[in-house]
Amino acid sequence: MRRLAVLDLDGTLTPDTLGGLLVRELMARGVCDGEVGREFLAAVERHDLGGQDFFGAVSEVYQGLGRLLAGVAVPSVERAVEDVWAQARGRLFGFVRPLLRMLEAEGFLVALVSGEPIEMVGLVAEDLGIDVYRGAQMAIQRNRYMGQVLQGPGRSGGKPDILQELASLHRASLERSFAMGNSLSDAEILALVGFPLAFEPSPELADLAASRGWRRVDRRDVLQVLPVLLAGEQGGEGVPGA
Questions:
Q1: Are 136 and 18 in contact, with CB atoms under 8 Å apart?
Q2: Is residue 242 situated within a structural domain?
Q3: Over the stretch 190-235, which tens digit does the pLDDT of each residue have?
């Protein structure tokens, strides 16, 4: 059976919150309402700071995203996405491309799964040569956003549902799969794979990783720890899958 390698984006492959950068770009272009944009950015900041219900904060961010993009033409967002990533790609962590080569050499099917808008996730995945990706999807009609978030991976249960979908679609074994992320939404995936890795984890994820015996890494040692993890010297509490 195949093995998946599921990677988070913000805080894991890049230090940026790409959705926040995108909204700032849309505001600068006059594409979206400035007041709604500022409310959205405030919600993102509250979420990033923590100290509140994590998934409640995620829901607030998604609601704000829906309000922000309601009525906006899809091409306007796609052009902004291209410009944002053109600037942000230079801040991608240096380990990312070697890590992808390492995973591919080990036979993993790499998937980029992020709570960011699918337009952004897809562009990043294309740049990195990742064929499988999932992100937040908005309802679209007549090439304009309708204001509803149809799929929000950052929501409670969002990433595990995607993981199960990918495992079924690609006939992958979760017990032999790998995942890496930095937040509580990633913890839901880390708990389902045989090889979990908490990358520069949030305080909540750090506590969970300590209690479950998951390895913790940072941008300096991840390329050294990953081969050891995949060799089976550190498993974690992975749950066997199909």
A1: no
A2: no
A3: 999 999 999 999 999 999 999 999 999 999 999 999 999 998 744 4
